[in-house]
Amino acid sequence: MVLTHWNTVILLDRSGSGRSGYQLRHRLNGTRCKGTRDDLSDPTCYVHSVEYSISNNTIRRLNLMSDTFSSSGSILSDGRIIEAGGFGDASTRIHYFGPCKSGDSCDWTLGKKHLSAKRWYASSQILPDDRIIVVGGRGSFTYEFIPKLSTNGNVFHLSFLQQTNYGNEDGKNLYPIVHLSVDGKLFLFANRDSILFNYKQNRVVKKFPRIPGIGSRSYPSTGSSVILPLDQKDGFRKVEVMICGGAASGANAAARQGTFLTGLNSCGRMVITGNNHKWKMENMPGPRLMNDMVLLPTGHVLIINGAKRGCAGWRNAAGPAFEPYLYNPKKTLGRRFTVLKSTKIARMFHSSAILVPDGSVLVAGSNPNNQYTFRNASHPTELRLQAFIPDYMGKEYNHQRPYNVSIDINGKEGVAYGNKFLVRFLLESKPSKYLAFSAYAPPFTTHSLSMNQRMLKLRSTRIISDAKGWWNATVEAPPSANVAPSGFYLLSVVNEGIPSISEWIKFIQPAST
After folding, report:
1. Closest CA to 155 of 179, 119, 196, 181
2. How would you class 416 by CB atoms within 10 Å of its CB: exposed for 0-12, middle for 13-18, buried for 19 or more?
3. Mapped to the 3 state alphabet, what secondary structure does 230-262 carry?
4. Cα angle at 289 between 288 and 295, to 5 degrees?
5. CA-to-CA dists, residue 299 to 91, 201, 231, 342, angstroms
6. 3-class DSSP assignment, residue 16
7. 14/12 Cα distance (integer angstroms)
8. What is the pTM of this model?
């Protein structure tokens, strides 16, 4: 899933699972679907991507040109979505989607230039210069960049991916975790190991300590990760990574024999800036893998979806993790996790969760079966969408909630780095001393990875009232593209831990003089 700045959500699914509920006029290769018996049973004659309107609760059918199964993606500064790689012929293809107002006719288009290497189970990250780096993939120990200057453009070897590959257990380093640090370098994590990587020089700058414990965190072991919110109070200089969940050692081989080993219950936090690097470990309330980690406007982390035993893959897990966890990174060790109300819907392999503008979390998917399977399966294919409603959306907090948020950027395209902008909002009472402004970069989320997810706590230099209940805050944009790559962000006003509905803002490079 991907959230667009038009408040729609793009959903993608693999084309090999079978027929969806909507037919296409033309299949993936362009030939016409005629309604014959063969065509009616051909999955490529059916829709496998839709645009979902949050406000209208409607969908619009989209047309993908190849199988995006286990691909990666990012959002460019102009709001276009780039999807890279996939299964079979799609492993070198690039799809583009130009977000538009709901109801318009924009659709997926296939890039003329292809990737230089096959990218199946690879990861993507937007870079400060508005390029996208695509890292890894099954059998691909390399990285490359989008946009492509040519199909035969440079592809760079990355020995780290070979070193973390356990070939006898499906690698354990697929879908590597990739985070952009504030110095412009990349944090790369695969299996149990991590490095700080200078992609401009193709050089490992630093090797971090191995995360403690036995077991793996990368696909098919599949834990999840976030960068904890970056804060203007330290000048956005501190970057702390958090990784939670994963599978026990040997889980993949055991699952193939019908035994599902208990997953990992540990999380690790490590500051990747500075010179003192040590994983600080703590335990979740229970074991979890294939979990999604979503940054909320409050700065808390929602851990949702997944299973308690086994690993990722077709029918490789058991014991759905029905209870979400809420993690408060500011509390003392041992008091950071809260167990939330249980769902009744299993969200296992191939499920996703994303934050949407009203502060809720859209949850979708779950298909641990090789085909769409609705009966005679331990965990059938799941078609229902859900909204996870955090406590802060409760009516009892309405008197603390900022309303009618608007952003004044003087008619410009966006706010240049380091510049100030005006945020106007309505509040029933005087803002508390805990008033905060958060900016959130929406991710491309798949297989428990929220690629490019990022949250910043911005500086407010002045807050004044100009009418009864109305407040004007002067807020400062992030200092650079290293801290916040150019593009669209959700801005929330958070008063005493209660966020407003978010509004979109675009951070841009200063105009050249």
Report:
1. 119
2. middle
3. EEHHHCCCCCEEEEECCECCCHHHHHHCCCCCE
4. 85
5. 36, 34, 10, 22
6. helix
7. 7
8. 0.96
Residue of 228, 229, 158 whose CA lies nearest to 193: 158
11-34, pLDDT tens digit by residue? Answer: 999 988 888 888 888 877 778 998
Q: What DSSP assignment string belongs to 98-154?
A: ----TTS---EEE-SSPPSS--SS-EEEE-TTS-EEEE--TT--EEEEES-S-TT--
Residue (of 275, 169, 308, 289) closest to 225 by Cα position: 289
Q: How many CB atoms lie within 10 A of CB 512?
A: 4
| Residue 400 Cα distances to 14, 383, 394, 425, 431, angstroms | 43, 36, 11, 12, 8
Q: What is the pLDDT of residues 63-116, one digit of tens each?
A: 888 899 999 999 999 999 999 999 999 999 999 998 777 667 789 999 999 999
Lookup: tokens for 288: 């979890």
Tokens read off for 181: 């640090």
Question: What is the residue-wise DSSP string for 26-65?
Answer: B-TTS-B----HHHHT-GGGB--EEEEETTTTEEEEE--S
Residue for token pair 């209660």? 498
Average pLDDT score, the chain: 94
Spatial separation of the C-alpha atoms in residues 262 and 210, rounded to whole Å:
21
Name the nearest CA neighbour of 350 among 399, 392, 305: 305
CA distances from 99 to 10, 78, 81, 128, 484 (A): 9, 9, 7, 21, 21
Assess whether pLDDT exceeds 90 at residue 482.
yes
pLDDT of residue 168: 61
Query: CA separation (Å) from 75 to 26, 136, 213, 284, 442?
Result: 27, 19, 34, 31, 8
pLDDT band, residue 513 (cuts 50/70/90): very low
Instruction: Say whether pLDDT at 512 is over 80.
Output: no
- Inter-residue contact 487 to 75 (CB < 8 Å): yes
141, 101 contact by CB (below 8 A): no
HSE-CB of 303 using CA atoms within 13 angstroms? 35
